[in-house]
Specification:
Layout: E1 2-15, H1 18-28, E2 34-38, E3 41-45, E4 47-51, E5 54-58, E6 68-74, E7 77-85, E8 93-111, E9 114-115, E10 125-131, H2 132-136, H3 139-153, E11 163-168, H4 174-181, E12 186-188, H5 208-212, E13 224-231, E14 235-243, H6 250-268, E15 280-285, E16 289-295, H7 298-303, E17 309-317, E18 320-333, E19 338-345, H8 350-367
Antiparallel strand pairs: 1-8, 2-3, 2-6, 4-5, 5-8, 6-7, 7-8, 9-15, 10-15, 10-17, 11-14, 12-13, 13-14, 15-16, 16-19, 17-18, 18-19
């Protein structure tokens, strides 16, 4: 559970001017980690698109049509937004219309984290740290790296399908927008149709409003297989896409998917995308965030600046490794030449949140025995 406090009496300002709110939404929501408050829980959300009219976000597993309260921190101020759910929303995608905004100055987030004590048998740690900024600055290198793998792995399929391609980069198009909102592969097996092979794949019907509002010179149409290329199962780098004039079968999907998995395996082992390879002991943890120490260096003060979006692996137990996307909320130099880092989890899946909750519960019990 998380609540909000202020160091002094907070200076709150409520804004109902929808034009002003729209400006804030369109300028800040696409680039700042945002969370949703619901039933005393804070859950990171993924913004698909934002403009002055409102937001499109990835589905949050909420089944009700109640008010959505979204929040983020910017320049030491806490922003709360009230949205209503509008027509076209479903379990995979939500369309939100703004109602009001409240800005609280000099506010801080407070939560109870479980301290990792010496009593536990396995000391958990953070490792393989990188940042979204670092990765986005290396898209050309990533493209060259993946192109070499693709050139070799795609020899067998280039004459089998009408079109075969790999796309790496930030330049957004319809398929990247779809995969950002829902990382499930696209498998439209019938020519001229937009019906998924089965329910395990992206369903265009659930995203009809998003599709109708997004122009692309290559509209979504079967027969097509598009598989996301992810770094650490968290950061979307691009995709592999094949299209055909004939019906595609599961055998075709498995062949394309094996190529994608091979590319992702090699990307995730590629040292060029790692900023820090060292192991850093975890000090405290909760289902919302994590704290740890890093050596005080000029490089680390830059890497761990407040607001930075990082990616790393947390090793909770010998066989429990979880890739994490986080935003740095706290960074402070300590007396013994170290920096104490506090991070909030960002884009956490229900399974990952469940694992961390269970781990926190277990070490809390261990610390009391």
């Amino acid at each position: 559970m998380r609540n909000l406090e202020a160091t002094n009496k907070p200076n709150e300002k409520e804004i109902t001017d929808l034009h002003m709110i729209g400006k804030v939404i369109s300028s800040l929501f696409p680039r700042i980690p945002v969370s949703m408050y619901h039933e005393n829980e804070q859950t990171p959300i993924q913004v698909i698109s934002a403009n002055q009219e409102g937001l499109v976000i990835k589905g949050t597993d909420r089944l009700d049509d109640g008010i959505r309260i979204l929040t983020f921190t910017n320049n030491f101020s806490l922003y709360h937004f009230w949205f209503e759910l509008i027509q076209g929303s479903n379990k995979d995608i939500e369309f939100l219309k703004p109602l009001k905004m409240v800005i609280r100055d000099e506010a801080k987030r407070v939560e109870n984290r479980v301290v990792v004590t010496k009593q536990i048998e396995y000391k958990p740690f953070v490792s393989l740290i990188t940042s979204t900024e670092f990765i986005s600055g290396r898209y050309e290198k990533i493209k060259s790296f993946t192109d070499l793998i693709w050139e070799k792995d795609s020899i067998e399929i280039k004459n089998k399908y009408n079109s075969c391609m790999i796309k790496i980069g930030e330049e957004e198009n319809l398929r990247l927008k779809i995969l950002k909102s829902n990382p499930r592969p696209i498998f439209l097996n019938k020519p001229g149709k937009i019906e998924p092979y089965n329910t395990a794949f992206f369903n265009p019907v659930l995203f009809k409003d998003l599709l109708s509002n997004t122009y692309d010179p290559e509209p979504l149409m079967g027969a097509e297989i598009t598989i996301p290329i992810l770094y650490g199962n968290k950061i979307l780098l691009g995709y592999i896409r094949v299209s055909a004039n004939e019906t595609l079968e599961m055998e075709d999907f498995n062949q394309i998917n094996s190529i994608a998995l091979n590319i992702m395996e090699k990307i995730n082992k590629w040292d060029e995308l790692i900023l820090l390879k060292d192991k850093f002991d975890i000090l405290d943890i909760s289902s919302n965030g994590i704290g740890f120490l890093v050596p005080y260096t000029e490089e680390n003060t830059i890497i761990f600046q407040q607001g930075q979006i990082l990616f790393f692996e947390i090793n909770l137990e010998e066989k429990t490794k979880i890739p994490m996307k986080v935003v740095v909320r706290y960074s402070s130099k300590q007396e013994n030449s170290v920096i104490r880092i506090g991070c909030e989890f960002y884009d956490l899946t229900l399974e990952e949140k469940s694992k961390i909750k269970e781990y926190s519960k277990n070490i809390n019990i261990a610390s009391k025995t």
